[in-house]
Specification:
The complex is a heterodimer of chains A (327) and B (201).
Chain A: E1 9-16, E2 21-26, E3 30-37, E4 40-47, E5 53-58, H1 66-84, H2 90-113, E6 116-121, E7 126-128, H3 135-153, H4 160-163, H5 201-219, H6 223-247, H7 251-282, H8 300-326
Antiparallel strand pairs in A: 1-2, 2-3, 3-4, 5-6, 6-7
Chain B: H1 21-24, E1 30-31, E2 38-43, E3 78-79, E4 86-87, E5 93-95, E6 98-100, H2 102-110, E7 120-122, H3 124-133, H4 135-138, H5 143-156, H6 170-200
Antiparallel strand pairs in B: 1-2, 3-4, 5-6
The chains are: A alpha+beta (327), B alpha+beta (201).
Chain lengths: 327, 201
């Protein structure tokens, strides 16, 4: 018995946090869940014959994997280094900044819309699998696990729930449950009785700033005003996303926040490039991409695109909110 | 037995509410009726298995019947696959397709002879590697203490079991290489410092 070896195959998905980590491994007759810290590991084994169900629930989870953290750190260091190079490596600085923004945006989008909680259930336990927290990896792992469990247990035929004999009495809500499992608790965000709709001031402020900012830009396109409007909108968008993450809320407001940030990013980047291009044309021997805030907003087409986009987003957000209230 | 007949109810991962059959059956996304979260459920035949109930009267040992080693009043059902003792239904532990008695099982766990029952391991190879490498970027003077410590851990726990899923001892080797290099560097530095002081004196 001593020195017995079991061959394991790694399942897709691993949680590699800065300190905590978790992964799943397929054994011959069991699934091994490893969780732990850098210098120790805890194991849990779920035998294929005992697994009753796997439940994946879509959920917002802000998890920053270690390799993403390192990539963002590297991009940040590269930005700082490139800014100190003489002559300034503007293209490198811009590239690293863009990479940093893209990584941050990916993390936000993946956390809000592509995250999940995966849970495994046996007759005596119901536990979360922390390594499966993104939808795409959860789907991959689920299909592999389903096949493996199916080989051991077989599969349930379609419509099996209809053929299960119904018990005589429905289970009372507050009755103690067999197997020592905790009684079903009400949803944190769900309301059993109809609660009054929450007034979301962040959402309102975002729409108002989009509308006012768009109108102001159409009337008086000045560089400093441009920067101020952009910063306010990005901050409100982030606030909206954080609020949605914490308290739940309408999907349309989250989409408007993401679109507002994307619009601001794309317009600012394009404006940067165009300003650098114009500067290079005017001074061919002094090429630089460093742009002062007052230089922004000097391209009429971009200014109109930005102003129009802001007004359009504000209008569609307000319309969606009105429709939601009507429902 | 639950409201609609499965042995254990399936719960929503977000709100913990019990999921009805119509949320369990679909192959793709379904909606939890309590919190409106999207859920995917994969259920397996084990969900329909009812727990085996043994009545006390059924296992009482009769006249001339073999009795359980641990419960003389109860009928023996199977022998232990490890030690051969007779076991009743209560003492029988089904493990890896065999019937084990509780004593064999607990001694196997204590002596760490059964890998599939281990639920915790300390990763000495990671500790050695951490001691050898981590101080370098953060506070290198600490290596005067951590390098010998890394070497000690690597040599002392060379034969200790590694992670259940990791097989090679490459971390030990890397830790030892770094530790030896750091010790050599410190030895050279101290020797150089002593020689310089000696020259001045």
């Amino acid at each position: 018995m001593a020195g017995e070896t079991i061959k394991y195959r790694r399942l897709p998905g691993a949680k590699r946090g800065f300190l905590h980590r978790a992964s799943l491994w397929l054994g011959d007759d069991h699934l091994l869940a490893i969780s732990g810290w850098p210098f120790m590991e805890d194991y849990r084994r779920y035998y294929y014959r005992d697994i009753q169900a796997l439940v994946v629930t879509r959920a917002r989870r802000f998890i920053v994997p270690r390799h993403w953290l390192l990539a963002m750190l590297a991009a940040g260091i590269m930005t700082a280094v490139s800014a100190r190079i003489r002559p300034p490596a503007a293209w490198l600085e811009e590239g690293c900044e863009s990479l940093l923004i893209l990584l941050a945006m990916y993390l936000i989008v993946a956390s809000l819309w592509q995250s999940c909680r995966c849970r495994i259930q046996t007759a005596v336990s119901r536990e979360e699998l922390p390594s499966l927290y993104r939808m795409w990896t959860a789907r991959k792992a689920l299909s592999i696990l389903e096949r493996r469990i199916g080989e051991v247990q077989g599969t349930l035929v379609e419509g099996w729930t209809a053929s299960v004999p119904q018990s005589l009495a429905p289970a009372p809500d507050s009755a103690p449950q067999p197997g020592g499992l905790p009684a079903a608790a009400p949803a944190p965000g769900a309301s059993q009785t109809a609660a009054p709709p929450r007034r979301n001031w962040v959402e309102r402020a975002l729409y108002a700033s989009l509308a006012l900012g768009g109108a102001a830009l159409l009337l008086r396109p000045v560089g400093a005003l441009w920067t101020a409007i952009m910063v306010v909108q990005v901050l409100l968008s982030i606030g909206m996303l954080v609020d949605r993450h914490l308290h739940g809320g309408s999907r349309s407001a989250g989409v408007v926040a993401i679109l507002a940030m994307t619009l601001a990013g794309v317009v600012a980047y394009s404006d940067n490039l165009l300003s650098a291009f114009h500067h290079a044309q005017a001074h061919p021997r002094q090429f630089t991409m460093q742009v002062r805030p007052e230089d922004l907003g000097q391209t009429p087409v971009l200014n109109e695109i930005y102003a129009g986009g802001c007004i359009l987003l504000a209008a569609s957000g307000a319309l969606a909110a009105a429709l939601r209230r009507k429902e | 037995m639950w409201a609609w007949g499965v042995s254990t109810p399936i719960h929503c991962g977000r709100c913990e509410a019990e999921l009805p059959p119509e949320a369990i059956e679909p192959r793709d996304w379904a909606i939890c009726p309590a919190c409106s979260s999207e859920v995917i459920v994969r259920a397996f035949p084990a969900i329909l298995t009812k727990p085996e109930v043994v009545s006390p009267a059924a296992i009482q040992a009769g006249e001339g019947e073999a009795a359980c080693f641990f419960h003389p009043g109860k009928t023996a059902a199977v022998p232990c696959s490890r030690c051969g003792r007779f076991l009743c239904q209560l003492c029988r532990v089904e493990f890896r397709g065999e019937d084990w008695c509780p004593e064999c099982l607990s001694s196997g766990i204590k002596k760490k002879r059964i890998a599939t029952l281990e639920n915790h391991r300390t990763l000495y190879d990671s500790i050695a590697l951490g001691l050898a490498i981590l101080p370098l970027p953060f506070f290198w003077p600490l290596t005067i203490a951590t390098a010998p410590a890394a070497l000690y851990v690597a040599l002392r726990y060379w034969k200790a079991p590694l992670s259940v899923v990791r097989r090679t001892r490459i971390r030990f080797v890397v830790a030892m290489v770094f530790a030896v290099a750091q010790i050599a560097a410190w030895t050279w530095f101290i020797a150089f410092a002593v020689a310089s002081i000696g020259k001045r004196v």
